[in-house]
Amino acid sequence: MAAVVSEPKFLAPPIFTPNPHLQQSHILHTLKFQTRPTKPTLFISLSSFTSTQFGGLSSGLAAHTVDFAPASDDPEKLEEEGMERDNENDVVASSAAAVVEEKESKDRRRAVRVAWEKLVRWSRSLRSKARTDVLERTKKVVVLGGGSFGTAMAAHVAGRKAEMEVNMLVRDALVCQSINESHFNCKYFPNHKLPENLIATTDAKAALQGSDFCLHAVPVQFTAAFLESIADCIDPGLPFISLSKGLELNTLRMMSQIIPQSLRNPRQPFVALSGPSFASELMSKLPTAMVVASRDKKLANAVQQLLASEQLRINTSSDVTGVEIAGALKNVLAIAAGIVEGMNLGNNSMAALVAQGCSEIRWLAKKMGAKSATLTGLSGTGDIMLTCFVNLSRNRTVGVRLGSGEKLEDILSSMNQVAEGVGTAGAVIALAQKYNVKMPVLTAVARIIDNELTPQKAVLELMSLPQALIMQERGRSLSARIIQEDT
């Protein structure tokens, strides 16, 4: 469209005198007037300014008018022009929205970047202050047991410092020879080379002599007899780091009770190591996080220094009971999860069962004095997720095969490793009775293992349970505890 621009007209002209001391300030205002679509549009630009000269003050206002030619009276043309204006408005609005969105996105990215940089600075600051004296002064570590997890932890510790001697006490002479001659555990890790400072032996006295730390990796059900046989070789001040998870079947004891009692030394330093960790992934140096728990804070910190590395993160805790009971019960729950998988009951059933199992573990653990934070942390929820949902789990594998119709005797005879949940199941139920806690899912697993209930019958019974259970919590009766709501 054609437009005629008028010359500026000063409505209140000031006095302008060329002077180097003159200062001016301008403010621009634009006004738009439109009466009807058939009438022209009038734009008025108003420029107001203030100037000072030798302390004096003067102001003025200038106006520019822009007159567009009248629009056509043709209705079709008017409609077309209206559509064009609408499209132009939409484009302008979209562009404005895009600009705002881009600015908000930049602000979000900046906020995330700043938060991450703060976290990194905080982490580096703490790492710079971290003590390393424990690792520096540790000269020898002994590992009791030559199984998969014991081997993985022995290899990890040996890799922390080449000058440190790591001794593995094993029963199998062939495994001992394989580790010492070819640096492979031929039984469990034939494809993973072990550090050269890792030495195997069948001599308990030679393995234990001069050790600064002891990693105990013997299965729970064999621990008492084993330790009693070598008690004379163990220094009363040697810290024991327990890698074993479970409860002793007949006595219901945890490892924190079995070790000092078997060694006839109630003051034997004890640390429980637990958390979501498969031996094969530790051997492959994949990122892993675990927890060390001890009632002795200094000892927990010392073990943290010994074990923590770029691949292995170690948290500390004082809740020994919570860490141990969660580590024991999750193995029984993993068998239940495997049974659901073996029976092809679907994802809904799996989620419902694991949620109910988590509640049962929490009920019992809290009655035993465990802390809620422990049960929702690495050694609780973290370990449960790994053991219940991943095929590498030995206990889950037992459950899958039970759910598929195999007999327990055939399953166990075909395995070269111990599934702690099998031996722990009966102890868990006895413990639940002791503390008056109802545990339908874990009780069903114990019945299936005892061959007193089939997996199919167990599912029917569990689905037929009443919707409310009466529980005792903190010495007070709570009636009508709704199972599905307490997860």
From TrEMBL:
<comment type="pathway">
    <text>Lipid metabolism.</text>
</comment>
<comment type="pathway">
    <text>Phospholipid metabolism.</text>
</comment>
<keyword id="KW-0443">Lipid metabolism</keyword>
<dbReference type="Pfam" id="PF07479">
    <property type="entry name" value="NAD_Gly3P_dh_C"/>
</dbReference>
<keyword id="KW-1208">Phospholipid metabolism</keyword>
<keyword id="KW-0150">Chloroplast</keyword>
<dbReference type="GO" id="GO:0051287">
    <property type="term" value="F:NAD binding"/>
</dbReference>
<dbReference type="Pfam" id="PF01210">
    <property type="entry name" value="NAD_Gly3P_dh_N"/>
</dbReference>
<keyword id="KW-0560">Oxidoreductase</keyword>
<feature type="domain" description="Glycerol-3-phosphate dehydrogenase NAD-dependent N-terminal">
    <location>
        <begin position="140"/>
        <end position="299"/>
    </location>
</feature>
<dbReference type="GO" id="GO:0008654">
    <property type="term" value="P:phospholipid biosynthetic process"/>
</dbReference>
<dbReference type="InterPro" id="IPR011128">
    <property type="entry name" value="G3P_DH_NAD-dep_N"/>
</dbReference>
<dbReference type="GO" id="GO:0046168">
    <property type="term" value="P:glycerol-3-phosphate catabolic process"/>
</dbReference>
<keyword id="KW-0444">Lipid biosynthesis</keyword>
<dbReference type="InterPro" id="IPR006109">
    <property type="entry name" value="G3P_DH_NAD-dep_C"/>
</dbReference>
<keyword id="KW-0934">Plastid</keyword>
<dbReference type="InterPro" id="IPR036291">
    <property type="entry name" value="NAD(P)-bd_dom_sf"/>
</dbReference>
<dbReference type="GO" id="GO:0141152">
    <property type="term" value="F:glycerol-3-phosphate dehydrogenase (NAD+) activity"/>
</dbReference>
<comment type="similarity">
    <text>Belongs to the NAD-dependent glycerol-3-phosphate dehydrogenase family.</text>
</comment>
<dbReference type="InterPro" id="IPR006168">
    <property type="entry name" value="G3P_DH_NAD-dep"/>
</dbReference>
<keyword id="KW-0594">Phospholipid biosynthesis</keyword>
<keyword id="KW-0520">NAD</keyword>
<dbReference type="GO" id="GO:0009507">
    <property type="term" value="C:chloroplast"/>
</dbReference>
<dbReference type="InterPro" id="IPR008927">
    <property type="entry name" value="6-PGluconate_DH-like_C_sf"/>
</dbReference>
<keyword id="KW-0809">Transit peptide</keyword>
<dbReference type="GO" id="GO:0005975">
    <property type="term" value="P:carbohydrate metabolic process"/>
</dbReference>
<dbReference type="GO" id="GO:0005829">
    <property type="term" value="C:cytosol"/>
</dbReference>
<protein>
    <recommendedName>
        <fullName>Glycerol-3-phosphate dehydrogenase [NAD(+)]</fullName>
        <ecNumber>1.1.1.8</ecNumber>
    </recommendedName>
</protein>
<feature type="domain" description="Glycerol-3-phosphate dehydrogenase NAD-dependent C-terminal">
    <location>
        <begin position="319"/>
        <end position="459"/>
    </location>
</feature>
<dbReference type="InterPro" id="IPR013328">
    <property type="entry name" value="6PGD_dom2"/>
</dbReference>
